[in-house]
Amino acid sequence: MSNVRVRFAPSPTGALHIGGLRTALYNYLFAKSKGGQFILRIEDTDQARLVEGAEEYISQALEWLGIVPDESPKHGGPYGPYRQSDRVDIYQKYAKQLVSEDLAYYAFDTAEELQAMRDRLKAEKVANQQYNSVTRASMSNSLTLSKQEVTDLLEKGVPHVIRLKVPAKEDIRFEDLIRGWVKIHSSTMDDKVILKSGGFPTYHLANVVDDHLMKITHVIRGEEWLPSAPLHVLLYRFLNWEDSMPEFAHLPLILKPDGNGKLSKREADKQGFPIFPINWTNSNGTKNIGFKEHGYLPESITNFLALLGWNPGNDRELYSLDDLGSAFSLERIVKSGAKFDINKAQWFNQQYLRDKSPEELNNYLAADLESSGLKAGNDKIQKVTELLKDRIVFPQDLFSNGRYLFVSPEQYDPQVVQKKWDHETAAFLQEYRESINSSENWNAEIAHQLLSDQLEQAKWGFGKIMPGLRLALTGIGKGPDLMKIMEILGKDETIRRLNQAITRLANTTIKKA
Ligand code: GLU
Questions:
Q1: I want to staple 296 with a disulfide (CB 3.0 to 4.6 A). Which of 43, 79, 291, 415 is the partner?
Q2: What confidence tier does 510 reach under pLDDT thresholds 50, 70, 90?
Q3: Which residues contact 441 (CB under 8 A, 6 or more apart)?
């Protein structure tokens, strides 16, 4: 086991979306590629934004994809607890340590005083209306008040926060594994609150303290956290943990399909594709269909997400989760944003469905038949899945694309009728029906032989009769091998459907004649 330890640290403020899922996957794959550990840590310090059920949702979504944490609130582990709300005393201890070392300070400013400061700076045309190394001198905090005043205020329980004392003029730099050197001047940073008035930490303090105590070696997270990284670097320094500071890798964004901006839930809704791994119901009752319930297989999603921003360096596209775990490397993460392409996700699903065992495919179809109140023997189910499996994108397509193999057409596609059905077709099929009737045996080859004999006599090509024959048997204009369809339907049902079509479409025939 190597000492590589990475974490996925979501805040349970709603459903995990595809971007978060990719971050979790990349962390997991990196751990696997290094023989390290993958930790799930729940960052729930922003209690006002907590959403009930979100933590459980995150666990279930990861579980569905096979991303199993080595340590987590559920799995436990040597560095727990793994839920930040259970660690508040730890953060308070470090916040106080920073105050005692003059690296942070108490601030007692009220909301009105803070607003007045911003208004004043605005009026003075100061670009950054921040609480920082300059403005702190005119505010109500332990740097401006006397020791006694501070003690009194604290004893009285006057609401206060702890702010980090960001240095006035200093370059803060670190090397990001994806972006290279990042440099920021501390004068552009504000004195961030690290402990809130209720005693809860902010994200920054809790995140850094936990990454350190949990011995995280690499912080792999979305690009939106890049602006926070300098502050984190500063915290490592102030806490004297610089030597064991993790390496940072900020992942590029997932972009809308046209590459114009970040992929959003709104865009996904607009284009009709899912954005959440599994079903999610919002607090207002709105239901969102997940990739899972949409019919995507977990192996398609992990493969798709892995290649959405990571390039294996060759043409190979199909990777199981295990294969990805061996192949993955941070060096091959693409530096620019990755365009989300739902067609690619569907392509993966198609590939993985083809690989499913006949039993699994049969089970999908059998379940859908049952829920539609239809019955069919195993033999027939098996033949239908074999016929359709190369043409489906989702498991449920077996039933939706092959429904006519179980239920006689209730109507005939009017466009196909208009173009392909006429008196001649009806007469030809009537004769075909007779020859089927007199045949003793029945299978796809016989169906084909009888048809080609008759076509030869009529001096017709296959193309002239196939659309009409398909229409009569299935009600639509497209589908898989018609001879196999006739074999599956059986001789009697084939004859019955031909009769039915000839009778029902008789009006059309007459009208056109
Ligand atoms: N809690 C943060 C989030 O919701 C974690 C960011 C990080 O990985 O540092 O994404």
A1: 291
A2: low
A3: none
Which residue has the least CA distance to atom 3 on ligand 1? Answer: 10
Q: Quote the pLDDT of residue 361.
A: 97
pLDDT at site 507: 77
Q: Which atom of ligand 1 is nearest to the CA of 13?
A: 4
The CB density around residue 165, as the number of other CB atoms within 10 Å, is 22
Report whether the peptide linkage leading into residue 467 is cis, meaning its omega lies within 30 degrees of zero: no
| Rounded distance from Cα 9 to ligand 1 centre (Å) | 5
C-beta separation of 483 from 445 below 8 A: yes
Q: Which amino acid is at 298?
A: P
Contact between 89 and 213 under an 8 Å Cβ cutoff? The reply is no
List residues bridging with 175 in a β-sheet: 181
Residue 98 CA to residue 234 CA, distance in Å, equals 12
Pocket mutation for ligand 1, best pick of 11, 16, 55 (most atoms within 8 Å of C-beta): 11
- Mutual angle of helices 203-213 and 88-100, in 10-degree steps: 100
DSSP string, 453-508: HHHHHHT--HHHHHHHHHHHHHSSS--S-HHHHHHHH-HHHHHHHHHHHHHHTHHH
State the closest ligand 1 atom to the C-alpha of 211, by its place in the atom list counted from 1. 9
Q: Is 30 exposed, middle or buried (0-12, 13-18, 19+ CB in 10 A)?
A: buried
pLDDT score at 513: 45
User: Which tokens go with 210?
Assistant: 């936990």
First to last CA, the chain: 80
CA of 10, closest atom in ligand 1: 4
Q: Give the pLDDT score at 99.
A: 98
Angle CA(285)–CA(289)–CA(293) in degrees, nearest 5? Answer: 135
- 23 C-alpha vs ligand 1 centroid, how far in Å? 10
Neighbour tally for 498: CB within 10 Å: 22
Q: CA-CA distance, 188 to 481, in Å (whole number)?
A: 68
Global pTM exceeds 0.85: yes
> pLDDT exceeding 90 applies to what percent of the chain?
97
Strands of 102-210, DSSP E: 104-107, 161-164, 171-176, 180-185, 193-195
**Ligand 1 geometric centre to CA of 355 (Å):** 36
Task: Decide: 483 and 447 in contact? Cβ < 8 Å.
Answer: yes
H helix or E strand, kind and range, residue 372: none
Question: Comparing C-alpha atoms, which of 346, 331, 479 is closest to residue 401?
Answer: 479
Cα–Cα dist 107/94, whole Å: 17
- pLDDT 10s digits, 408-419: 999 999 999 999
The strand pairing partners of 257, in sequence order, are: none
